[in-house]
Amino acid sequence: MYDVPRVALxxxxxxxxxxxxxxxxxxxGSGTIPLDEITVAGAxxxxxxxxxxxxxxxxxxxxxxxxxxxxxxxxxxxxDAGEFQNRYAxxxxxxxxxxxxxxxxxxxxxxxxxxxxxxxxxxxxxxRGIELLQDGIPLNLADGSGxxxxxDPLALRSVEVYKGGNALTxxxxxxxxxxxxxxxxxxxxxxxxxxxxxxxxxxxxxxxxQFSRISGPADFLINGTFTNSDGYRAHETQRTQNLNANxxxxxxxxxxxxxxxxxxxxxxxxxxxxxxxxxLNNPRLANPTAIGGNQSRxxxxxxxxxxxxxxxDVGKLDIDTWAIxxxxxxxxxxxxxxxGWTYGIAPRWAGTFDVGGHRNDTILGLRAFAGQxxxxxxxxxxxxxxxxxxxxxxxxxxYEAYGENRFWFLPDLALMTGAKLFSSNRTYSNKGGxxxxxxxxxxxxTYEGINPKLGLLWQPLPDIQVFGDVTRSRDVPDFSDxxxxxxxxxxxxxxxxxxxxxxxxxxxxxxxxxxWDVTVYRSEVxxxxxNFSINPGLNIPAATFNAPHTLHQGIEAAVSLEVARDLTGVxxxxxxxxxxxxxxxxxxxxxxxxxxxxxxxxxxxxxxxLTYAHPSGFYVSPSVDWVPRGAFADHASTLRVPxxxxxxxxxxxxxxxxxxxxxxxxxxxxxxxxxDVSVVxxxxxxxxxxxxxxxxxxxxxxxxxxxxxxF
Length: 711
Known about the structure:
With 711 residues, this protein is mainly β.
């Protein structure tokens, strides 16, 4: 599977990377200090303390994490976990819904659509076009696919969102970018011990614990969450068990190693999609096919990773290694039974030095990761394996070298240059011998290229930045795209890689009571990987094709204003936040769809949050989620779902002894709405809204409450 010349190339590049740290052993210049306190994310729990200390060599303090994100020349976001600790944060929507430019919508349980700038826009399941990382180490499988079941919101300390090509800092250059979920260590935890229990609607109960200690050069932290919920809809029961732990050890001053260990078990029943009428009038129903086939997703994942960090004369070298084992039992139209491993290594050096008296910031990195997945399918007999229909092996390997440089040619103006070279191989072997797949099939395709980046960052004041950049992205198809299934057989389809040029300009900053983060962007995409469902009601994985030319453009904006201070004369505050994501995604002169909108994501998503905070620790925060017009359900633009508005209220109190109480009430008007769609090519020819079962109803009125003790 491994190509020896490529391995030699990676070794040579690593040697160059290590040598560079001694070449630039000069004192750092006095360039502009990046922002470290700006945030416009919605209603933070005012009493949630930072719990931040100096951090450690492998995982820096939260303040340094924020500063590193805000030094990026491009659109990024930083979320302190204190902002969602005191609400019912069960899914990634609860974590990311206050981030402009990120569209995240629940389908059921923990299954959702996550898209940044239209990445994987019509993907009817899981994830494409965004790289997920935990503590800077990839979570995606080697073919680029990913899901959300490993991410436990109660096991996070911060979240870093790098939109589009701005994720080059990790070596990611997909259209959507990357999201890095940073877990706490004993040095950065909110408290040494945390106990929490919450629950509420839909017979939901969740328990969480966290325990950490520091002993001389060693430290450790363990976090566990157990969730049980019957769900809003019939046949939506969810049972999850998540365990995250890390152990760090300072080998000598300036050298530290840390192991990250995780175990994640999910058993999720699938309610399927409904017709538009039932989604709006009988939203708690399940699709009869989902019940008859006892459709579910049972996932067991184990992860071990290591970061060993070296503080050098100039900069820091991190060497990451990881291995992920994933087992999937997934009865849908057939029983999908998969088992696979992903493993990799990624050295990365970052440092600051002088060039001709000017400050220069450099990042250099390599990534080599691969994996194999045994993919079997069986006839679905009420959720059990029937006759086998597929026995295939999916193999993926990736070799990447990347670099990014910020040169401060003026004290407040930096030129950013960067590039990534990559080679990605996908090999598929279908052993055949079954009635549905009688013949052997073999597919092998390699994707190679270079993705450059160029940008400018102007920082006229310490708390204000203006930026503009141009980036190149490439999205390599994963095996859900390449190995396409229908009721008859599975076929390997050698698709082209999706590629795009993205232009963006924006500003972020703070002036007294006002803070903002606004970006406009335009992506000109070639061979976009577009999905459409063959039969959403049967839960058949979507087919994928390359659209010759498409356009993604939009606005990502968040503005926060502290409306009043000392409202009643005791130091209380009243703040208002407005978040707006505008999406304009369309085909361009397509031979089939002309200039139609690409279906799946609404044009505008708005969120308004008003927060009152009292110095006693009490807070109340009403919010409105508003989608003026729903998304199109088909690429032919014949059917659009209705818009909606949801009213929510969060309130709670943080006591000085470390005990917190909260109530999180959602959709108080019990609005009936469609939260997501399973996209088809033409709704009119698929039976129209009366017969097309392609819609996921949103959750009705719900109330959750909890108590957390930190000590």
